[in-house]
Amino acid sequence: MAEPGGVRPVTVSDVQQLVRRKDEIEAQIKACYELLEGQKGVGMHEPLVDAEGFPRADIDLYQVRTARHNIICLQNDHKAVMKQVEEALHKLHAREKEKHAKDEAEALAEAMSQNQSLPQAFAKVNAVTPGSPASISGLQVDDEIVEFGSVNVNNFQNLQNIATVVQHSEGRPLSVTVIRGGRRVHVGLTPKRWAGKGLLG
């Protein structure tokens, strides 16, 4: 994915490279200062001539001048690299933020579309007896039933419809579709006689 203007997007390794470059420059500046220190502690601003205006004989003037010149150039480079590091970090953070926002928007859109595609329930499970066929099949309290064998929201009139389907399906698996926690779940339910009341429990 390229940024506008065909520029390659900034990566973490780009930032690491810039930081390495910054460290190198700092090491070079330090080496130049050490060189000046070795020349009788001449810093950046001490005079290079003696009291009479002659070039000082106790130091290597060429080395001192070169070191001073290099320090000035390196400090400029350092400033430029620091600016690049800052900009790269800004871009990186901005992209992370953008990506995060996009991911959130996609997740939201997916959740919305799932909700829209959920069928309508016609009954709700309000109790499941432990050990019953309903419990063994995995039906849970608060499951909203959207299909119970041949019964669905279009042909459901009352709970007698379900009782009829159950009686006709004793010992045979029924396909049951429920909505649980906003998701569609399929349950295979086999009505049969058990220790409790009814064929389901």
Quick recap:
49% of the residues lie in helices and 11% in strands. It has four helices and five strands; from the N terminus they run H-H-E-H-E-E-H-E-E.
Q: What percent of residues are in strands?
A: 5-15%
Number of H/I helices: 4
Report the sheet with the most strands, covering strand number, pairing sense and barrel closure.
5 strands, antiparallel
Taking the alpha carbons of the first and last residues, their distance comes to 57 Å
Going by helix content, strand content and strand pairing, the class is alpha+beta
Gross morphology is rod-shaped
Q: Give the proportion of residues in helices.
A: 40-55%
Number of domains: 2
Using only C-alpha atoms, the radius of gyration works out to 39 Å
N-to-C series of helices and strands: HHEHEEHEE
Query: Segments where pLDDT lies below 50 for 5+ residues?
Result: none
Kindly state the mean pLDDT as a whole number?
A: 85
Strand elements, count = 5
InterPro entries: Nas2_N, PDZ, PDZ_6, PDZ_sf, PSMD9
Domain PDZ: 90-182
Family: Belongs to the proteasome subunit p27 family.
Keywords: Chaperone
Overview of this protein structure:
With 201 residues, this protein is of the alpha+beta class. It has 2 domains: 12-115; 123-189, PDZ domain (Pdz3 Domain, Roll), CATH 2.30.42. It is 49% helix and 11% strand. It has 4 helices and 5 strands; from the N terminus they run ααβαββαββ. It has helices at 12-38, 61-117, 133-137, 159-168, and strands at 123-124, 144-148, 151-152, 174-180, 183-189. Strands 1, 2, 3, 4 and 5 form a 5-stranded antiparallel beta sheet that branches. A hairpin with a 2-residue loop joins β4 (174-180) and β5. α1 runs antiparallel to α2. It is rod-shaped. Residues 90-182 form the PDZ domain. One of its GO terms (cellular component) is cytoplasm.
